[in-house]
Amino acid sequence: MPTRRHLLAALPSLALAACGGGGGITPPPAEPAPTLRLSSDRSQYFVGEQAELRVEFSGSGARLEPGFGRVRSGQVLRTGALAGPLQLRLEVDAAPGQTPQRAELSLDVRYRDRFSPVGDFSASSHSALPLADGRVLVLGGDRGGVVLSDAIDRFDPALRRFERIGSLSSGRSEATAVQLPDGRVLLAGGITALPVATRTELIDPRTGQVQISGNLAQARHGHSLTLLADGRVLLAGGTARASAELWDPQTGRWSFTAGPMQHDRSGHSATLRTDGRVLIAGGHRIGEGSYVFAELFDPASGRFSPLPEQGLAPRAAHSAWRAPDGRVLLLAGERTRTDALEALADALRFDPQTQRFEPLPGLGQARTLAQAAPLGDGRWLLLGGQSAGERALRRSEAWAPDQAAQARAELPEPRVLHSLTPLPDGRLLVLGGEGLHGQLVPTALLYE
């Protein structure tokens, strides 16, 4: 049994324990961790679909980029139609001197890899132009009539419907078109049903109204048409043509450039570079003399200058695209042999820093007159065209500079002389073309 002395000795320690162990202060409860969450309703989407997003955060406000700006915590948001993989960033406001909190979300967006019919539309060698409002303008071509078509049609992807909105001044095929900064479309060159091949036309894609806007000094087909950064339009080459002309939007007139190209070119490509100059590459040549593979047009001087030669073989009827990094890709195409055309299965990439072309891993199918368009995932889709053994191809493939070509869904029917037009939601509109026996292919398709 404890004695009184033992109990008295224990009292001080008991008192200390009751006070928290030697006079210490109980720490305040821990601050709750700040909330920061950016989430989506699904883990994967298909091109053309929308994503539902939810933002949650602690703080007075935040920004969600790209495209949303200021947001509130708890807010539910919806993206537009997804054209490809999307990286989102939520950044919460921070006090001066503090590091802002961030959350990121990657949306996985893929193609179903299928073609869906969207109506009947028969044409070949027509012009198809994506408009700023998301619709597509389709001009002329061979529509199976006695003469070339003068039709102006407009395709609405939301309604999946074609609408005839006007008529050109003459039937026309193999023409080229660009949309101007004011929304109108300039159409030039090609083969016409009436003897007005030099006539150029301005089209209002909203109303279908047409007005004549100047005449070329020379009739042309197999040429290129490029909208320059200053609003002028460059028309270069064409069969047996080395000359080039500039259209001035202030006067509506054409005039020759200060100098011609190095030689005549047809079936070449003309790609606007980020510095405002135009890369002219390849093309068939009729005249004699040495072949210059590529040259640059400078809008400031109005002159063409040849690039250093690399011993590259002639190439024509290829597809050319400026990649997001500013380099230019030349895909597939053809070269002339003594007795035939050879379809190509390779690609070239032009580097504006080195001013040189480099060969890239080959395509899965040698083809010329193919149509190509960028996919939202960093690859390009090559569709249809023809090869040495087949007048029209069904095969399609996805290709990127750092990846091997991959076969994609085949067209329901072979096509050549068709068009492939990117839509704002990432899908691609396939129009017209001719089949194995030269017949018009009557079905319009969406690749999605």
What does this structure look like?
The chain has 448 residues and is mainly beta. It has a domain of 132 residues: Neuraminidase. It is 3% helix and 40% strand. The chain has one helix and 41 strands. β21 and β22 form a beta hairpin. Keywords: Signal. InterPro entries: Gal_Oxase/kelch_b-propeller, Gal_Oxidase_central_sf, Kelch-typ_b-propeller, Kelch_1, TAT_signal. It comes from Inhella proteolytica.
Shape field: globular
Separation of the first and last Cα atoms: 90 Å
User: Strand share of the residues?
Assistant: 35-45%
Structural class: mainly beta
Mean pLDDT: 92
Q: CATH fold name of the domain at 317-448, please?
A: Neuraminidase
CATH architecture of the domain at 317-448: 6 Propeller
Report the CATH superfamily of the domain at 317-448: Kelch-type beta propeller
Counting DSSP E segments of at least 2 residues, the number of strands comes to: 41
Number of helices: 1
| Model regions low in confidence, pLDDT < 50 over at least 5 residues | 1-22
The biggest beta sheet is recorded as: 4 strands, antiparallel
Order of neighbouring strands in the sheet with most strands: 5-4-7-8
The percentage helix is under 10%
From the alpha-carbon coordinates, what is the Rg to the nearest angstrom?
Answer: 31 Å
